[in-house]
Amino acid sequence: MSTFPEVQNSSNISSDFFKPDDDWPYEVRRYWLHLQPFVNLVRALLVYVTSFIIVTGVTLNVLSFVVLSSPVINDSSLSIYLRALAISDIGALVFNYATSIARSHSEDVNRLFVDNKYLCDTNAVTMELFQFTSTWLIVCLTWARLVAVAYPLGKHKNSSESSTLATIVILAIVSLTISLTKLYVGGYESDSVFEFAPCRKKPKPWASAMHLYIALSTWLPLIFIFFGNMLLIICVRRTAVIRSRLTPRAFKVNRTLLAVSLVHLILLLPLGVVETIEMYWDVVLVRYPSLDEQENELYAAEEVAFEMVSRFVLSLVSLEFCDKFLFVLSDGEEISQWRSGKFKTMDVVLAL
Predict the structure, then answer these.
(1) Series of mean pLDDT values for 10-residue runs along the chain (352 residues)
(2) Which parts of the sequence belong to the G-protein coupled receptors family 1 profile domain (predicted)?
């Protein structure tokens, strides 16, 4: 049962549709008013803070891609992973957050999606594609770094780059395949945290598919990142031979990777918890509040509170798409080399 009003046609679209109305029970509306301070905080985060994160994140990721594409540093596996991450993070910021903010604040923009099945389907796929890809690229980067530290002389450079490219291509194909399921399985925007009216379609319910989706998007990446970092720390600290082979720059990169992975874990863990609770509540527990009026009010109040907690968590998750620039700043060497290359190019042009 849904306690929130549904949009019947595009003329009813409103960016503020998640508001209490006469259809809500009195106790639920009173509970909603009690939550107003938290509601206002979440809305401010979603509008102002997220907008700042979008601008900052896109700028930093574009700069990272440009720097890492410089001929002097673009031939390493780390550089390839980071460039792929920059592209994926930009896509996530644009399609998951910027598009959602535009839809929530402009009825005309949202109507373009609601009245156009192609745009709605494309939005459903891209919202999932880039976020899923970014998450698993962090997993791949973590384990690739672990292999590089554990076996510093074990792979030829060219074969390492080839395996990196192959990994990224395979990951992109798998991510796209999983994202395409959103065309048949609903849930991606039916209760948007940005408060825009969803597309007018009745997709199939999540059912057991939600178990697999949550596992692939949150818990499995968290497990792989956590154990990958633990093994990396153990490998670096306990193996004196490997430590002697690593350069100071390599240690800085390792520390930066640990910092970025830790941020990712901190931000992704609450999302996994929230999605798991939602899955248990809506799929496993299977409540039927309409059978009892008092139970209905309790169910509706819990849904209101849960919605706001979900929005708060998702507003923080956007931070994970901005921290990859730390790799470029890990010791300044990349930027110094990039600047040197740019200045040399300018000297040649001026000489001509």
Answers:
(1) 37 44 66 79 85 90 84 72 91 91 87 86 88 92 83 62 90 92 65 72 60 83 89 74 53 68 81 78 57 64 74 79 66 50 41 37
(2) 60-328
Within a domain: 17: no
Closest CA to 279 of 202, 221, 222, 208: 208
Tokens of 102: 């535009």
Q: Which domain holds residue 111?
A: 36-182+205-333
Please report, for the domain that includes residue 65, its CATH number: 1.20.1070.10
What pTM was estimated for this model as a whole?
Answer: 0.77
Containing 54, the helix (H) or strand (E) segment is: helix 50-68
DSSP state of 281: I
Spatial separation of the C-alpha atoms in residues 15 and 7, rounded to whole Å? 11
Q: What is the number of structural domains in the chain? A: 1
**Quick one: CA dihedral 260, 261, 266, 271, positive or negative?**
positive
3-state secondary structure of 204: strand
Distance CA 241, CA 301 (A): 59
Among candidates 222, 308, 238, 237, which has minimal Cα distance to 19? 308
Asked if 121 contacts 128 with a C-beta cutoff of 8 angstroms, the reply is: no
CA distance 352 to 349: 5
Strand partners, 185: 204
